[in-house]
Amino acid sequence: MRRALALATLVFGIAPASSQPDGALRFRECFQDVGYGPTACTPGRHIIGPTAVEISHDGRNLYVTSVGGLVPGVAVFTIDRRVGALSQLPGARGCVSQTGASSDGGLCATEARLIQPAALAESPDGRHVYVVSANPSSTIVTLARDRLSGGLSVVPGSHGCVSARERPDCVRVRAITRATAIAASPDGRHVYVTASDDDAVAVFTRDPRTGKLTQLGGDDGCVSADGTDGDGGVCGKGGGIDDPTALAVSADGRNVYAAGGLSDAVAIFARDGRDGALRQLAGVAGCLSASSSRTGTQCGVARGILYPSSVTVSPDGRNVYLASWGGLIAAFGRDRRTGALRQLPGTAGCLVDPGWSIQGCAPARLLPRPTAIAVSPDGRNVYVSTDGASAASPPSKGVAVFARSPSGALLQLPGENGCASDDGSDGYAGACASVPPLALAVYDLTVSPDGKSVYVLADALAAFARRGSDPVPKLPLLRPSR
What we know:
mainly beta
């Protein structure tokens, strides 16, 4: 292991751990699909065209959805929890694909209903993994998880699939056309899915034994921008959810937050713990938007939101963070009783890539087109993946690293500790740690449950060790404005 770390330091220019502040990342290893040919990364199977990454709640496994190589699927890795190192399960246990074919010419488990995997979520009890498809014939596929090995197996028949279209092997459901994100409630009783074509959030109950999903009836089964389910039925009507791209459930299970892409908004819902139904908070507390022209007067006003791509709730429930493809991060204080949000005051309320000029937002490095945002389990740090595809910014890609204060304000770590990029640049005059495997595009990231590792999904899967033993930087205590 020491030899591998020394090689990473030599090849990729990563600073030794002793010189890094709390929350800084140190590159450990990478996997890249065998279809790319020889690379500096360990060969992996079925990770061409990756879309999302998820770690199991027990920290034993990592899963990657992909759409490339003509055969959509899910790759399965084990995690050495002592050091965070990855190993793909051998043979057909290492992947599930639509045809049963693997990108290395071998075999995967076969699940024909995996159409175009866009996102996935594991149930909190570790028994099932749910995969949604971003396709007009969208499906939500249920895979059974072996809690010892982490391997995934097909759940046959209607227990294993719901679909936006008639299929003999799926149950027809509403408001999931071109699904974009999925999340399970902390108690494991409910599953929520956003759908861009239906401008909706769909609501399901979950059978913990079989994993089967059942949509709530009537307008409890979905919330949509126009109050319809896209198929002649009704949903509850909600604001700020035009083209929803992401969602998050608070750790206390009280609230669900959805990012509205075309609304430039975050929508706030109270969750009924009994049946899982969602009720948007009343009036302008129900959504916050930076674009009144897109939402009218139905949302409260916020800064630093421009086509949001990812939303997350801090583990302590005090903050919500929204990353936007427009090169922005918006930071909110959360009322833990009601779930209502108030943007942090002044420049603590939003960060912006220097290539953009957004009044009232503080500049932050390596923020062109953020794709995902995550808070470490200890709440000390926030990590943002960026893919660099922004007309206003140079094309550096990677991950930006922030310290988080008790109020939720973010302060980027200094110098190379504040970012890791494919070319060692922050896109401007500054430097980041150089990690070439982050080239081409960066799609997603996740932090391990023990907080020791961060995994960044690019066209290669990059694993980082996270430093967490140094004192938290002393940041000013800022309170949400009233």
